[in-house]
Design a protein that fits this description.
The structure holds 2 protein chains of 2 kinds.
Chain A (H helix, E strand, L loop, with lengths): L4 E3 H15 L3 E5 L15 H5 L4 E3 L4 H12 L4 E8 L3 H18 L9 E6 L14 H5 L5 E3 L4 H13 L4 E6 L6 E3 L12 E4 L4 E5 L2 H15 L4 E5 L2 E3 L3 H11 L1 E9 L4 H13 L5 E7 L8 H7 L3 H20 L2
Parallel strand pairs in A: 2-3, 2-4, 4-5, 5-7, 6-7, 10-11, 10-13, 13-14
Antiparallel strand pairs in A: 1-8, 6-12, 9-11
Helix pairs in contact in A: 1-6, 3-4, 7-11, 8-9
Chain B lengths: L16 H26 L14 H8 L7 E5 L3 H7 L3 H8 L23 E5 L4 H16 L5 E6 L6 H13 L3 E7 L2 E2 L2 E2 L10 H5 L3 E6 L3 H16 L5 E6 L19 H7 L2 H13 L3 H24 L16
Parallel strand pairs in B: 1-2, 1-3, 3-4, 4-8, 7-8
Antiparallel strand pairs in B: 5-6
Classes of the chains: A alpha/beta, B alpha/beta.
Chain lengths: 333, 331
């Protein structure tokens, strides 16, 4: 008997739908999200259900959209807004960084900003340099902004529902290559933000990633198992707050950590994570490294983009090579 | 140019003498407050930088005098005047600038980022244009929640070249949001004459979008009130945003380090003859028979009040780093 599944884009839609039904202060707007149903077909049907008062199309004005959400969130609404491609987030950043993220603290806790910015990120679709980035590091360093990126359809639904209920601004990043995946329907109504999950247990090495990278790590772990390496996979789920404790617990067992990031290593979240793990758990570490992307913009041509991605093959290759080397040293060969 | 609307100007709610005196007192409070800030800055008690509102008092006080409870205001980094015009506590604001725990934001905000939600001040924004975005969002809430409130964005002439300005004016007009955009045109964007960096008249931009647009003498409290009454009524009626350009002049530099060398010769003296406080005094006398001596008394009362405020602020405790707040609001 096959397990009931849900498509990632439908999971996102259901989360928005259920939260709009649950709380009439929740509104949703963005470019082409209402009548057209979104360029990734996430939101068809919602306009008909909730009406133009609560879900509506905006001009191509990312800054106005972002600031409008901020102003609405401090005056009683709970807006969700979509920035079509995460590459367009820089246009919205003044309001996100300087208004939404700072408000709770700088206002001396007079008011918080319960907004969610949803955005489609990630490479692998030959969209070129300006429609393929994963801007997590741009967002991770902003105090007051939560950063969430689900790896599965069921996590997407539960994490988005919690993001909408959260009293703080949340950047919710959906990898473009995941919209059409189907996963088993989850049992949790919501999942807490800022908590990682061990999604595969293992004893030899910890693979830590987020979003699509988790699925790459899981496939790599299957291949590694055939080579006799028992990998544990940690899905970080959020990168602010980032759950270093779960990674440290895993490392205490495996003594090795590899962070897998779709993006450049310099200034990336993976280097930051490995740094924090080393700072707190150096005595547990035999090895730690990062699998990331070249320090170039993301190329278009399939051969170039394929080589750019930190795909499962690279993970398998690097782990095998590095553990093999370690074994030789350990045995004095 | 006084442009151009189908909306008929509603009669401005007439002020009685007492109310008119109170508006003068508030303008005087702003001027005195800014002088005190400058003085405390020079003594090292106010930190960082400041952007004073001196000379622009009639604009903020005139507009805010027509707002109701529940209306929202977004100010700028030159926001002390916007806050005081709205009735924010002068003590709380001074304590904030002095970096004290008793400040409006516990000393976390400082001069440029003050918030007083209880008073409807959703924020002062340190980045040019931020107030426009915030007020547009507040107007979105007012419309969708049906509160009947309007939102007011104060901003300067230089903001007319920002993305916030163009994006939000367009969106607000498309959505018919109840927001009043108050452009305080003091002729200079920071150190540069606005006409050197701006194509066409500022007011032509909202007009091109079909937004109800007016331009008024921003140094004349009564002229500002007439314009603001029309603009606020237009926005509150559901007809969409209104744009009010108040022509004014700041008597001090852009920020605390600016001596204003870019001013044209004699320009400051000419504007000082039209000091909004003098214009208001003349209005009080002509309209209500309130004589100069009574205004002098108000000036003296405000000066004494500010002296007490500064004294109390300087005696207030600084915030304790050990008790500093957290990044996120708990669930």
């Amino acid at each position: 008997m096959s397990e009931a599944t849900i498509e990632f884009r439908v999971a996102v839609r259901e989360a928005i739908d259920e939260e709009m039904a649950r709380d009439e202060r929740v509104v949703f707007f963005g470019e082409d999200v209402a009548t057209a149903g979104g360029v990734f077909a996430v939101s068809p049907g919602l306009e008909e259900k909730y009406g133009r008062e609560r879900i509506f199309d905006t001009p191509i004005s990312e800054l106005a959209i972002s600031a409008g959400a901020f102003g609405a969130a401090v005056t009683g609404l709970r807006p969700i807004f979509e920035i079509m491609f995460a590459d367009f987030l820089p246009l919205a950043m003044d309001s996100l960084i300087n208004q939404a993220a700072k408000y709770w603290y700088v206002s001396n806790e007079q008011g918080s900003v319960p907004l969610v910015v949803r955005s489609a990120m990630g490479a692998g679709g030959n969209f070129g340099a300006m429609h393929s980035q994963s801007p997590i590091p741009w967002l991770q360093g902003i105090p007051g902004l939560k950063v969430v990126a689900p790896a599965t359809a069921s996590d997407a639904k539960a994490l988005l529902k919690q993001s909408i209920r959260d009293e703080n601004p949340v950047a919710f990043l959906e990898h473009k290559r995941l919209y059409s995946v189907k996963d088993p329907i989850g049992s949790e109504e919501t999942l807490p933000l800022g908590k990682a999950a061990v999604v595969r247990e293992g004893t030899d090495v910890t693979l830590a990633s987020i979003s699509k990278g988790v699925r790459d790590c899981l496939r790599a772990a299957d291949e590694l198992a055939e080579r006799g390496v028992d990998a544990e996979v940690v899905d970080l789920r959020s990168l602010r707050p980032v759950d270093v404790a779960t990674v440290l617990s895993s490392v205490a067992k495996t003594n090795r950590v590899i962070a897998v990031e779709e993006g450049p290593m310099v200034g990336g979240w993976a280097a930051n994570l490995v740094g924090m793990v080393a700072a707190e758990g150096l005595q547990e570490l035999d090895d730690a490294w990062i699998i990331a992307c070249p320090e170039t913009p993301i190329p278009y041509s399939p051969t170039l983009e394929d080589a750019y991605m930190p795909a499962e093959g690279r993970i398998v290759h690097q782990v095998s090579e590095r553990l093999g080397l370690a074994a030789e040293i350990a045995t004095g060969v | 140019m006084s442009q151009k609307s189908e909306t008929k100007a509603p009669p401005v709610a007439p002020l009685d003498a007492e109310e008119a005196r109170e508006l003068y007192r508030r303008m005087r409070l702003i001027r005195g407050f800014e002088d005190a800030v400058q003085s405390q800055f020079q003594k090292g008690n106010v930190h960082g930088t400041t952007h004073l509102y001196s000379g622009q008092e009639a604009s903020g006080v005139g507009v805010c005098s027509l707002l109701r409870d529940g209306d929202k205001v977004a100010g700028t980094y030159r926001g002390h005047g916007h806050a005081l015009a709205l009735g924010v506590s002068a003590q709380g604001l001074m304590d904030e600038l002095l970096g004290r725990a008793t400040g409006l934001c516990g000393g976390r905000a400082g001069s440029m980022n003050v918030v007083d939600l209880e008073r409807g001040l959703i924020g002062c924004f340190g980045i040019v244009g931020g107030s426009i975005g915030a007020a547009t969002g507040a107007a979105l809430s007012a419309k969708l929640l049906g509160t009947g409130a309007v939102a007011v964005a104060f901003f300067g002439d230089g903001t007319s070249n920002q993305a916030y300005f163009h994006e939000c004016l367009n969106w607000a007009q498309v959505e018919k949001l109840p927001v009043v955009f108050v452009c305080e045109n003091n002729l200079y964007m920071e150190f540069t004459p606005i006409e050197d960096v701006t194509a066409g008249a500022i007011g032509s931009r909202p007009m091109a979008m079909g937004i109800h647009t007016q331009q008024v003498d921003g140094n004349d409290l009564w002229k500002v009130r007439e314009g603001a009454a029309e603009a606020i009524e237009h926005a509150r009626s559901g007809a969409g945003p209104a744009f009010l350009e108040t022509l004014t002049y700041r008597f001090v530099g852009h920020s605390r380090s600016d001596p204003g060398k870019y001013r044209k010769p004699g320009e400051l003296d000419e504007w000082r003859k039209r000091d909004p406080l003098l214009v208001a005094r003349t209005g009080l006398e002509e309209r209500y028979g309130i004589e100069a001596e009574r205004c002098d008394e108000i000036d003296a009362e405000v000066a004494a009040e500010l002296e007490r405020i500064v004294e109390q602020g300087l005696a207030a405790p600084f915030p304790d780093p050990a008790e500093d707040g957290k990044e996120f609001k708990d669930e």
